[in-house]
Design a protein that fits this description.
about 1900 residues; five-stranded antiparallel beta sheet; seven-stranded mixed beta sheet; about 5% strand
């Protein structure tokens, strides 16, 4: 096929990239032949022109289709090349979180640096038994394949685990060993698999260390052979180690640690046992602190030390040896701290009393002087002499370190040897599986001898790997018979020859080591001279003469020659070793070095002057001892020999390859570094596998798969009946080049890229079909849309036009109406406006005129009043001014005068004192006098002028006064006229006021009347509204209250229902858990029983055991056991203790014994409770006991006479009761009422029934009395006859002995049980048995102590005698109870009569009343009646009285329940005592002579029963029991005779035989039959437990037998389902409740065996039928598969389908129905079946990436719907089976729903409530598109789902537990089949059975 056909536009390719190694790009233009440039576009949208190599013209690698990305097998990829492999691994690791991927035969494991939940026991069980290609890649799949091939091919296997440090090699190897230990188990009880796993922590402690790349890096290689026996159980293991890195003991790089064991020791130094080691923190020792990082995050070294010590103990290394090991390790640490100082340039010295050296010598038991001397000196030997030479400090330190490394290597080898001894098995090994955990290809900046050896080992392993892959390819081609052409693959034999051949690198190195003056430089020159020109794989660096380059299969590696010789020699100072050997105090040290002379290989290392590590080779144990010359072997030679041995071992086995990849160097979880990954893929050979596969025909299809996948490329005429010819014809048309494919016998082989081409054609065809379908559908949709739119437009137009016409008509009508309305409205408005304006104008004129008149009047009145006021005010003001002026003048005058007087007085006083002054005063006085004279003259002048003016004024006043008097007289006359007018006005005003008053009073009265009327009306309206409001409010309140009550009631109901449901669910879950635990214990017990039986059979085969004869069982012991068996476990152990021939018995194990002890404790507690109850009742029997003690002293004749008197008294009492009964009946018949008292009324019937019952009981009592009398007479005669012949004396008085008894309480309990038994309806006809026993006890007896040494029977005898006396008091109590009952009946009868009369009177009165009054009268009467009843009550508070009555009733009910429990327990105890008495009498009869036996034929007296129907019983002889069991159980075949039988017939026959044994009261026969039946069923199930029909048959019969025991037990809860005839067939003598429990346990065991048998049948069908088979053909296409071929999904012959599962379910159902299995039990079986189907299907879905697709989800849902349809057909939808499929249904829905948006995430979270978060995420991660049209689930969407489901509280377990068995219940299912109608067919060979 031309390249242009593939390199077209939109094709995707891979181009190299410096950062990501490879980048994806898309062609934007078609490639044409001759183009030198490809036009590409990167994923980020960048355009790129990729230039092609002009020489090679190689095009870039094509990218695989998206549907192939993420494949489980890399060989399934169409394009097999490096970028495809890298991208597929990255997608699986980053997006799907899948760390395992197949690459042909190789499992690629990428270290996730995170703990994943994929290694649990459930995952191991899921991979167990599966083909390697059927499940997703896993280390368990490789381990299962190795285990299966070992068992199938009987060939040893090897699992080779390789990879870099930190890639996860050790963990992978550990999980592989865990798988073998879990799946195979050990052949013995020594738990070898635990020891194999226990070796891991030991080897990790001493051989693992922290490096920069890995916190737990294995610093040695190991090959573990796990041995298996012929049954393929682990029997032992053996370990071989390679290349221990000893230099790590003395040196660690930064951020690294020494071996873990040193840090564990330092972390545990505080423990008392480690005090002697004198250790401290790891930072204090030179050998542990160099890495400066002594702590690993998340690791507790102290806890790890505890784990290591426990592993030592498990492997048999005791404490003393452990302390010795720790002592050596501590000594190494102290040795590293020894300080060496320079003495001079050529010598060194250790200071005396060096503390660390002293501790070292003390721990090692050597002399301080010797060790300090030889640490600083060495011995040189020549031919003649021996010299001791001091060494400088550097050499001394190197010697010290060499000694430490040598000691550690010896210790390491010693531990490995002892681990191998502990894992060694004495059983012969049949085969083994080896697990090789070895280092991968290494290259560092500086590579030395260690890397050279490691890479040499990887070259050998790669060669073996290439040859194996080539061999498998060749076998595949030859098997398919296709032309075989040699495939060119890389052969690394030249590189191996370069290293190990003659004159190779190792050979030249050994030769140089033998030279006296050999050096690294001379060895390098030899290498250059020998190989530089002759070998193309050997190169010399340009810039160095001390290095060389080797072209390995993975890469070129440059090795530095410095240190090669020293490391190859691996020398140590022999004198130091001699000093250690000389230790006499430390035996372990001597043991470490005792084989130094005989060692086959040196294990120490010489001083290291350079390089990074030192090497050690563990000696091979298998090789015989060699000569001492071989002690000089170099490390290289030793390593080459051990490697050769390893290769021989691997070549003799079938190898399985695991390649571990380290995704990044920073230990980040799920972070992928492409550069580092590609380096490792190249180094580990994965890409070489790809290249070999790609060179041939990597893609392989079966013809059926090819036809199914590419059917779309075929035309109808191309399809032929022969699928093979069809495929050939089509392929020849599709692919023109015949070299691109080959036709094999069963497969078609394609070269690389052809599947992608076919996928492209298929996708194009589907795309074209999709486009055509889309075109047609879109056309149809568009036309439908157009027609709908056209029809809608026409309809809309029609309606719119009609609407518009209606709107126009409406508008016209509205316009005309508006005009008319406007006309009249405007007219009305104008007229109204005119009238308003006119009225307003008139009103305004009137008001204005009135206002103006009032204003004029007011102005005139104001003027007149103002003048008067002004006059008065002005006069008053003038007078006031005059008065103030006068007062002021007078006051001023006074003040002035006073002032002047004071001044004058002062002057006078002064003048009086001084003459001068007086003179002056006189002078002044003269002036003053003159002035005063002058003033007086002036004043006189003023007075004269004033007087003149005053006279003028007086004249004027007189004139004015005259005028005023005249005016006054005139005014007085006017005043008189005004007064007269005023009187007339007043009179008129008074008249007007009177009229006004009358008018106002009239108006007030009218107004008051109107107000009252209005007020009354308002009040009435308000009252009505208030009443209405109140009524509405009350209604609302009522409605609210009703609604609230309803809501509260509903809420309480819902709450109670919810609480009840929750409580019920909780109780059901608790009950189911209890049932599950109990049933698991039963299954475990059954397993132990089977194991015990198997061991017993093995012993019987090896040892001749004589056939056991018949052994008589002690009757006393068996009876005691039968009566004191309270649980199923004890019953089972009891069955095992009984001797029945041909039936295997199981012994009582310790667990059962502990359970019995616990049960005994519980019984003691119950006994104590019963004792407390009896103590309260003992007072009631004190009188009876006193009277009985007196009567006991009388003779037996007196007792018999008393019995006769008692009989007569009972007879008379019986007559009296009958007479009273007849009187009551006559009175009832005579006083018949109109309504309620008439015969036939309910009250009368109830009373009559009660009386009839009492009458029947009296009849029974009468018959018992008659029988008692006859028995007493016969017994009396027998005793008299016996007294005449026997001379035995009666025992002494027993009263004192009884008082000393320890079990007197048991005698009282026996009495109470007898008393209650006699009262029980079931035992009404049986009390004479007890009386008979009592009478027989009163006969003379032999010495009890001879028959029973402990006196137990004597105590029982005395107890029964006391019981006989107490029986008399019981009869008296019964008589008194009859009298009280009769009185009560009479009182009730009288009250009924009175009530009847009152009811009649009330009825007569009510009939005369009208209907309305009848109700009130009835209510009144009822109230009166209740009042009277309450008054009659003894308490004043009726409510309190009723509460007290209820409490008393509750107390009485509780007491009744307690009494019932006591009765049941005491009945059992009474049976014990009765059985002991029978045994005692049996012993008496044996001791009596034959003559006595003839004279005294005393037999057990049985109470004659009344007329009974004894049908439905089968009698057989004791010796026929084994024949019955053999014919009915052991030899009965369900497919043969049992097919035509009645369902459950064997159970009915066994029960009818059991009924007869119960009828004849034969306890031994009952027990023997039940035990034989149970053990025989167990035996047949053990023999044929794999046959579903047999197990189903006996499950149905066991359940039927159990139901029969319940149905005919006599318990009321079971009897109510029976017919009267069936109730007559109930068991009468024995309570078989204990055996019912035993049968229930047996049924549980059978049910579990049925489920296991069913699971074994269904298991192979489920995955094929539910997942792989295409029920709907063509829905899911087959994807290309790789080398790991899965089971084909196409139904071939022998392939299971869904129809196979349904047919098998039909078979199960029909078999169970045919056998008569209970319907409820069938439902539980079906539920378990569907759970297994759903769990297995879901688990496989979660572990298979190819099954997680949309089409597979549709297939699963269809298959589930078919199962549901089957449930509907069988009417089993309500059995809960459908609910068990809910997780599977939700997983199928999850595969089909959208998975893009947040809404989709929310829908998924709400939908998948039956799936856990881990399961949901797993399905989403595994979801894989089958076609190119589907899309993958994005990582973001998965993170969204995880965040939403974060708060879920659920189990982190991924898989469902398929081993869960739901607890089974056996609901009671009574049979309507009458026992007397059952006929026994002759085919059963049961003719010896007699029908009774």
């Amino acid at each position: 096929m031309a390249a242009s056909e593939l390199y077209t536009k939109y094709a995707r390719v891979w181009i190299p990239d410096s950062e990501e190694v490879w980048r994806s790009a898309e062609l934007t233009k078609d490639y044409k032949q001759g183009d030198t440039v490809l036009h590409l576009q990167l994923e980020d949208g960048t355009d790129l022109e990729h230039k092609l190599d002009p020489k090679t013209k190689n095009l870039p690698h094509l990218r695989n289709p998206d549907i192939l990305v993420g494949e489980n097998d890399l060989t399934a990829l169409s394009y097999l090349h490096e970028p495809a492999v890298l991208h597929n691994l990255k997608v699986r690791f980053i997006d799907s979180k899948l760390i395992y991927t197949y690459c042909g035969i190789v499992l690629v494991a990428i270290n996730p640096y995170e703990t994943l939940p994929i290694y649990g026991t459930d995952i191991i069980n899921a991979y167990s038994g599966q083909n390697m290609g059927d499940m997703d890649p896993h280390i368990f799949a490789v381990a299962e394949e190795a285990y299966k091939q070992m068992a199938r091919d009987e060939r040893n296997q090897s699992i080779i685990v390789s990879g870099e440090s930190g890639a996860g090699k050790t963990v992978s190897a550990k999980y592989a060993m865990r798988y073998f230990a879990t799946v195979s188990g050990s052949a013995s009880e020594a738990n070898v698999e635990e020891k194999v796993l226990a070796s891991n922590p030991i080897m990790e402690a001493i051989g693992n260390a922290k490096t920069t790349r890995n916190d737990n890096s294995s610093r040695f290689g190991k090959y573990i052979e796990i041995g298996f026996d012929k049954k393929y159980h682990i029997i032992g293991a053996n370990m071989r180690t390679y290349l221990l890195e000893k230099s790590r003991v003395v040196f660690q790089a930064d951020e690294e640690r020494n071996y873990h064991i040193f840090y564990q020791l330092c972390a545990s130094s505080h423990l008392p046992e480690f005090k002697a080691l004198k250790l401290s923190s790891a930072d204090d020792f030179h050998y542990t602190k160099q890495g400066r990082n002594p702590v690993i995050d998340g690791v507790d070294d102290a806890n790890e030390m505890s784990t290591t010590r426990n592993a030592f103990i498990l492997l048999g290394i005791n404490e003393s040896y452990q302390m010795g090991l720790f002592q050596v390790l501590a000594a190494i640490l102290h040795l590293g701290n020894v300080d060496v100082k320079d003495r001079d340039a050529d010598s060194s010295v250790i200071p005396p009393n060096n503390s660390h050296l002293m501790v070292f010598c003390e721990l090692m038991g050597v002399a301080y002087q010797d060790m300090s001397h030889w640490l600083c000196h060495k011995k040189l030997k020549t031919a003649a002499e021996t010299y001791i030479k001091p060494i400088p400090k550097l050499q001394a330190i190197n010697a010290r370190d060499a000694l430490a490394k040598h000691i550690y290597a010896k210790l390491f080898n010693w531990i490995v040897d002892h681990v191998n001894k502990a894992l060694h098995s004495t059983v012969k090994q049949h085969s083994f599986i080896g697990v090789l955990d070895i280092y991968g290809f290494e290259t560092f900046e500086i590579n030395s001898f260690e890397q050279f050896c490691i890479n040499y080992a990887n070259e050998k392993l790669q060669q073996q790997f290439n040859m194996h892959v080539f061999k498998l390819e060749q076998e595949e081609y030859m098997k398919e018979q296709i032309p075989w052409t040699l495939i060119d693959f890389y052969d690394n034999q030249p590189c191996i020859n370069l290293i190990e051949a003659k004159m190779g690198i190792l050979d030249l190195l050994d030769e140089e080591c033998k030279m006296p003056k050999g050096s690294d430089d001379s060895w390098a020159q030899k290498l250059y001279n020998t190989h530089l020109k002759t070998c193309s794989l050997f190169e010399k660096p340009r810039m160095s003469n001390k290095a060389f380059i080797i072209q390995h299969f993975a890469d070129k590696v440059e090795y530095q020659c410095e240190g090669f010789l020293e490391k190859n020699k691996d020398t140590v100072n022999e004198e130091q070793i001699h000093v250690l050997k000389a230790s006499k105090k430390f035996d372990l040290l001597v043991e470490l070095f005792q084989d130094e002379e005989k060692a086959t290989s040196p294990t120490g290392a010489g001083p290291a002057t350079g390089g990074r590590t030192r090497l050690s080779v563990k000696p091979d144990k298998g090789k015989p001892a060699q000569s001492s010359k071989e002690h000089k072997k170099t490390v290289g030679l030793q390593f080459r020999n051990s490697l050769q041995l390893l290769m021989e071992t691997l070549n003799a086995t079938t190898p399985h390859y695991v390649r571990c990849i380290k995704p990044n160097d920073y230990k980040y979880a799920f972070t992928f570094d492409p550069k580092r990954a590609v380096q490792q893929l190249r180094a580990c050979g994965v890409l070489e596998t790809i290249r070999i596969s790609a060179a041939g025909f990597p893609s392989r299809w079966t013809y059926q798969e090819f036809f199914s996948r590419y059917r779309v490329l075929m035309k109808q005429k191309d399809v032929l009946p022969d699928k093979k010819m069809t495929c050939k014809n089509v392929l020849e048309k599709l692919v023109q080049d015949p070299d691109k494919y080959q036709f094999g016998k069963t497969k078609i082989f394609f070269r690389a890229g052809q599947v992608a081409y076919l996928e492209k054609l298929r996708a194009d065809k589907l795309r074209a079909a999709c486009i055509r379908i889309q075109k047609t559908i879109r056309c149809w949709l568009a036309r439908k849309k157009y027609l709908r739119m056209k029809h809608a437009a026409i309809t809309i137009q029609r309606y719119v036009r009609g609407y518009q016409a209606r709107c126009l008509a409406t508008f016209l009508r509205r316009t005309r109406a508006a005009i008319i309305i406007q006309k009249y409205q405007r007219m009305y408005v104008a007229r109204s406006s005119y009238r308003r304006k006119q009225a307003a104008a008139l009103a305004m004129q009137c008001i204005l005129r009135a206002y103006m008149a009032r204003q004029l009047y007011k102005a005139l009145l104001r003027e007149h009043k103002a003048i008067i006021i002004q006059k008065m005010v002005r006069g008053w003001l003038a007078r006031q001014w005059y008065k103030r002026s006068l007062a002021a003048v007078v006051y001023l005058q006074c003040c002035v005068r006073r002032m002047r007087a004071k001044r004058e007085l002062k002057k006078l006083k002064i003048e009086a004192r001084s003459v001068e002054h007086y003179k002056k005063l006189n002078i002044g006085m003269e002036n003053k006098i003159m002035q005063l004279q002058r003033k007086i003259d002036d004043q006189n002048k003023d007075n004269r002028s004033l007087s003149e003016r005053l006279s003028g004024l007086e004249a004027t006043h007189a004139v004015e006064s005259e005028r005023l008097r005249r005016e006054l007289s005139r005014l007085r006359c006017a005043e008189e006229d005004a007064k007269n007018s005023n009187n007339r006005v007043i009179t008129l005003q008074e008249e007007l006021e009177r009229l006004r008053a009358e008018l106002q009073s009239t108006q007030k009265e009218k107004k008051a009347i109107e107000e009252w009327a209005q007020k009354y009306q308002d009040e009435m309206e308000q009252m009505i509204s208030e009443l209405k409001d109140q009524n509405n409010l009350l209604k609302n309140e009522k409605n609210d209250l009703n609604r609230l009550i309803q809501e509260q009631g509903q809420q309480w109901t819902e709450k109670m229902q919810r609480a009840l449901k929750e409580e019920t669910a909780q109780l059901e879950s608790d009950l189911n858990e209890e049932r599950s635990r109990y049933q698991n214990l039963l299954s475990e017990h059954l397993r132990l029983e089977e194991k015990y039986d198997d061991l017993k059979e093995e012993i019987s085969l090896t040892v001749n055991v004589p056939k056991p004869g018949h052994r008589r069982t002690d009757s006393t012991h068996s009876s005691n056991e039968s009566e004191y068996t309270y649980n199923s476990e004890f019953a089972e152990s009891e069955e095992g203790s009984r001797g029945v021939e041909d039936v295997t018995k199981a012994s009582l194990d310790m667990a059962l014994f502990l359970k019995l002890q616990k049960r005994v404790t519980e019984l003691e507690q119950e006994k104590q409770g019963l004792q407390n109850e009896l103590d309260r009742r003992e007072e009631q029997f004190q009188r009876a006991r006193a009277r009985d003690d007196e009567e006991h002293k009388k003779a037996r004749s007196a007792e018999l006479e008393y019995e006769s008197l008692k009989r007569q008294e009972l007879e008379s009492e019986n007559k009296k009761l009958k007479h009273n009964l007849n009187e009551i009946r006559q009175s009832l018949m005579g006083n018949t009422g109109a309504v309620s008292a008439a015969p036939g009324s309910p009250a009368y019937k109830v009373l009559l029934d009660q009386l009839n019952a009492s009458n029947e009981e009296l009849e029974v009592r009468k018959e018992e009395v008659l029988i008692l009398r006859s028995q007493l007479v016969s017994q009396k005669e027998a005793m008299q006859h016996k007294d005449e012949k026997e001379t035995m004396t009666e025992p002494l008085h027993y009263v004192e002995d009884v008082q000393k008894l320890t079990d007197a309480k048991e005698i009282s309990q026996a009495y109470m049980g007898l008393k209650d038994t006699n009262r029980s309806p079931r035992f009404l006809r049986r009390p004479l048995e007890v009386n008979e026993l009592v009478n027989r006890l009163r006969s003379p007896l032999p010495d009890m102590r001879k028959m029973n040494e402990d006196g137990e029977l004597w105590l029982v005898y005395e107890g029964l005698k006391e019981t006989n006396r107490l029986l008399e008091s019981q009869l008296q109590a019964q008589r008194r109870s009859h009298e009280s009952e009769l009185e009560a009946l009479r009182g009730e009868l009288q009250s009924v009569k009175e009530e009847n009369n009152r009811q009649q009177q009330l009825l007569a009165q009510n009939l005369q009343l009208p209907p309305e009054a009848r109700i009130e009268a009835s209510l009144q009467h009822e109230i009166t009646r209740l009042t009277n009843e309450n008054l009659v009550n003894p308490t004043e508070d009726p409510k309190a009285y009723r509460i007290s009555v209820l409490r008393r009733m509750i107390d009485l009910m509780e007491q009744l329940e307690k009494q019932d429990k006591t009765v049941r327990k005491l009945k059992k105890q009474l049976k014990v005592f009765a059985k002991k008495i029978n045994d005692l009498e049996g012993g008496q009869i044996e001791n009596v002579s034959p003559g006595q036996m003839a004279d005294e034929p005393i037999r057990p007296v049985s109470i004659p029963r009344r007329e009974k129907d004894f049908q439905g019983m089968l009698e057989y002889k004791k010796e026929d029991e084994l024949k019955l069991v053999k014919n009915l159980i052991l030899e009965l075949k369900p497919r043969g005779v049992a097919v035509n039988l009645i369902p459950g017939l064997p159970a009915y026959i066994l029960f009818m035989c059991l009924r007869h044994a119960d009828y004849i009261n034969d306890d031994q026969k009952v027990r023997s039959l039940l035990t034989s039946t149970i053990n025989s069923i167990k035996k047949i199930l053990k023999k044929r437990g794999d046959d579903f029909e047999t197990v189903s048959f006996w499950l149905a019969n066991t359940c039927r037998f159990l139901h029969c025991l319940k149905q005919y037990s006599g318990d009321e809860q079971f009897m109510k389902y029976n017919s009267p005839k069936q109730n007559e067939h109930c068991l009468s003598n024995f309570d078989l409740a204990e055996y019912r429990q035993v049968l229930s346990d047996l049924a549980i065991q059978i049910y579990q065996q049925l489920i296991k048998c069913m699971e074994n049948i269904l298991q192979p069908m489920i995955v094929s039928g539910m997942l792989e088979h295409e029920t709907i053909q063509g829905v899911s296409g087959v994807k290309p598969t790789g080398l790991r071929k899965r089971t084909s999904s196409i139904a071939d012959e022998g392939t299971y389908t869904l129809d196979s599962i349904i047919r098998q379910l039909n078979s199960f159902h029909s078999i169970m129905c045919q056998h008569g299995t209970d319907p409820e039990l069938i439902k539980q079986v079906v539920k378990q079946q569907f759970y297994i189907i759903g769990a297995v299907t879901l688990n496989n879905l979660l572990l298979r990436k190819d099954m997680c697709s949309w089409s597979k989800g549709m297939q699963i849902r269809y298959n589930v719907s078919q199962l549901e349809e089957w449930l509907r057909d069988k009417n089993l939808m309500v059995c809960g089976a459908k609910e068990t499929l809910e997780p599977l249904i939700q997983a199928a829905q999850l595969l089909q729903v959208k998975k893009k948006t947040d809404e989709d995430a929310e829908a998924i979270c709400s939908m998948c409530n039956a799936l856990t978060t881990a399961q949901i995420v797993k399905v989403l991660n595994l979801y894989t598109p089958v076609n190119a049209f589907e899309e993958r689930v994005s990582v973001t969407f998965i993170r969204t789902i995880q965040n939403r489901l974060r708060d879920r509280k659920e189990s982190p377990q991924l898989l469902l537990d398929t081993k869960i068995i739901y607890p089974v219940t056996f609901p009671f299912n009574p049979s309507s089949l009458a026992l007397e109608t059952i006929q026994i067919p002759g085919s059963l060979n049961l003719a010896f059975l007699t029908r009774v």
